[in-house]
Amino acid sequence: MPTFDYAPAPESRSVVTIAPTYGFFIDGAFTRPKATFATLNPADESVLAEVSQAGPKDVDKAVAAARRAFEGEWGRLSGAERGKYLFRIARILQERAREFAVLETLDNGKPIKETRDFDVPTAAAHFFYHAGWADKLEYAGLSAPGATARPHGVVAQVIPWNFPLLMLAWKIAPALATGNTVVLKPAESTPLSALLFAEVCQQADLPAGVVNIVTGDGRTGQALVEHPDVDKIAFTGSTEVGKIIARSIAGTAKKATLELGGKAANVVFDDAPIDQAVEGIVGGIFFNQGQVCCAGSRLLVQENVHDEVVAKLKRRLQTLRVGDPMDKNTDLGAINSREQLDRITTLVDAGVAEGAERWSPACTLPTKGFWYPPTLLTGVAQTHRVATEEIFGPVLSVLTFRTPQEAVAKANNTAYGLSAGVWTEKGSRILWMADQLRAGVVWANTFNRFDPTSPFGGYKESGYGREGGRHGLEAYVTTTPATPTGATR
Amino acid sequence: MSRLDVRKTYKLYIGGKFPRSESGRSYAVQSASGEFLANASMGSRKDVRDAVVAARAAFGGWAAATPYNRGQVLYRVAEVLEGRRAQFIDEVAAGEGLTARAAAGVVDAAVDRVVWYAGWTDKIAQVLGNLNPVAGPYFNVSAPEPTGVVGVLAPQASSLLGLVSVVAPVIASGNTAVVVSSAARPLPAVTLGEVLATSDVPGGVVNIVTAQTAEVATWLAAHRDVNAIDLTGVAGAEGVDWAGLEAEAAGNLKRVLRPQVAGGVPVEPDWTAAPGLERIRAFVETKTVWHPKGL
């Protein structure tokens, strides 16, 4: 098959200025850097900046600042005024979109076309959407007639490295729209866009303490979620850590929403438009190098079209461009960290050892940085680790089924329940499948679509609570009567 | 000579049947004033596990039943409950130490509570669901679905009104339930089982285990095939550590409805207050479906 060579089309990194070191953003100002660690560009392992490791005392200060803001200026502000701050933030994100896109690609390793066309515009859209809710909450059906929904107070938010800015927006926008204040911890390997967002808060004149950002590893996250003056936790990350958080708040008044792992089935019936389905399968698993909790990582294809689908998939994968994330033509960028690369490698090797057949297109991977080729695993059985464990990488496990009932049984045979896909031309079958699949999001004849108005979140061990849409607001309000400060909570 | 009355044997209600506890154990149930009322089965860990199996088996069918059908079945429950009014008044009066008149008020409220939830079944999706106007050519709709098998620790004090107030919202949306009854006042729960068994509620949709709460609650909270747990019944239950139960529930990320807490201690809610949607909302999952629009 002929492939075309593209001349390099690198995006310029001059649009963004990265400081050599960063402190925390607490009470409206940056603190002096301390106990720093490096954040790398995963595409070449160069050090982008040194960021600070927040200890319990730093977390204390951030939570205290958030509490003061909640009980002070922010708590007294009308919904309309809160909304106007969020509109401002949305606009500044749009104005500085290119800067954010470049910074995110440098820190995360994902292709510039994704940060430019998806991560950053969708983040801005989340602020724009939630801005409008701030003064309309009584229309959202959050409380019983006659009761009023109130903010929780101080919200601790811990976000992952796969969509650093977008996850920040998913967390901060609804929290502020409903009147809470926030202490957010970005992932250890991707802190830079959150620190740049702190500058946006300053430009927007957001009152001090409403948004606080502390950086660090899991110890910082633990100190934050276990802080006694935190009222609510919003966490996106692994199911393992989600369970630890759920355990840690047992018996307290702290609320939590958890958006955790997934092992989505993408079900392709024999009557599906195969070419469209192949595009959807590729987007479903290779978007963001497969480092997506809702990635369509289990392809369930009807047995009689298995060979055709796999042949077309292989052909399509040969046209994917893997390489420099800053190049505008790049389809697949770098894996976010060495740790993640090792996890992918270990799981795929386990799949091959258990009997799966592995295939990758010929592609030259850069010698520096963290890279994994797009990979197909065929002949996968339900019991293989690659069919049950979340790989979080550009790896598609292919399984087959004969009847719709078998597809449903296999699709639901997982502890997770975040997302699922269905490909068929038959409308009644789409709706039947959508009813049967135990997953929070079902994409039919499409995959990996996201929108601020559309609730996102899982069934079973993929966590609880929804983010986005009217449903996402529920997690950030309470309808129980207010307790005086210092009372038992 | 006066006639000797025929007493009822109070048993468990699992999978539509009335077995004794597999453990062979029973315990004496006393009235509020300390008189012997009956021997109730003392449910065990194994009974709870059997109940979970029955609830899981019933889930698919009950969740797939039309909301209209579930509403009719729940209304039928209210009808049959009303028909057993005299029996419930006796049991509630004896167990809760109420006058016959006060007990009648409780039973009437319980019937009305079931009617209230019967009317909700086909409105839940309309009130909790909606179309989402996404920025693209897609049809996008969010609607609630039942969470699955729900463990319910029924209130200790309010043995009928409290009981139906926690069970009805769980099954209204299509969940199935494993209910641990009030430990000291289990008799109305068993009689409610008899009502459910004769009200077209499919076997396994509601399973009732009379037991010592502290003994079996841990197994229910830790069970991997239970999707959610209602901890209301920890209030006033002897030897129950609700934080420990919530921690056990984290093992498979169960949805947890915490007890109402006042002064740091779980308290039983006021069951005469208007219920609101909280108990329905606690045990549904929002599913969002996308489909492209185009020619």
From TrEMBL, chain A:
<protein>
    <submittedName>
        <fullName>Aldehyde dehydrogenase (Acceptor)</fullName>
    </submittedName>
</protein>
<dbReference type="InterPro" id="IPR016161">
    <property type="entry name" value="Ald_DH/histidinol_DH"/>
</dbReference>
<feature type="active site">
    <location>
        <position position="259"/>
    </location>
</feature>
<dbReference type="Pfam" id="PF00171">
    <property type="entry name" value="Aldedh"/>
</dbReference>
<dbReference type="InterPro" id="IPR016162">
    <property type="entry name" value="Ald_DH_N"/>
</dbReference>
<dbReference type="InterPro" id="IPR015590">
    <property type="entry name" value="Aldehyde_DH_dom"/>
</dbReference>
<dbReference type="GO" id="GO:0016620">
    <property type="term" value="F:oxidoreductase activity, acting on the aldehyde or oxo group of donors, NAD or NADP as acceptor"/>
</dbReference>
<dbReference type="InterPro" id="IPR016163">
    <property type="entry name" value="Ald_DH_C"/>
</dbReference>
<keyword id="KW-0560">Oxidoreductase</keyword>
<dbReference type="InterPro" id="IPR016160">
    <property type="entry name" value="Ald_DH_CS_CYS"/>
</dbReference>
<feature type="domain" description="Aldehyde dehydrogenase">
    <location>
        <begin position="35"/>
        <end position="479"/>
    </location>
</feature>
<comment type="similarity">
    <text>Belongs to the aldehyde dehydrogenase family.</text>
</comment>
<dbReference type="InterPro" id="IPR029510">
    <property type="entry name" value="Ald_DH_CS_GLU"/>
</dbReference>
TrEMBL record, chain B:
<dbReference type="GO" id="GO:0016491">
    <property type="term" value="F:oxidoreductase activity"/>
</dbReference>
<keyword id="KW-0560">Oxidoreductase</keyword>
<dbReference type="InterPro" id="IPR015590">
    <property type="entry name" value="Aldehyde_DH_dom"/>
</dbReference>
<dbReference type="InterPro" id="IPR016161">
    <property type="entry name" value="Ald_DH/histidinol_DH"/>
</dbReference>
<protein>
    <submittedName>
        <fullName>Aldehyde dehydrogenase family protein</fullName>
    </submittedName>
</protein>
<dbReference type="InterPro" id="IPR016162">
    <property type="entry name" value="Ald_DH_N"/>
</dbReference>
<dbReference type="Pfam" id="PF00171">
    <property type="entry name" value="Aldedh"/>
</dbReference>
<feature type="domain" description="Aldehyde dehydrogenase">
    <location>
        <begin position="25"/>
        <end position="233"/>
    </location>
</feature>
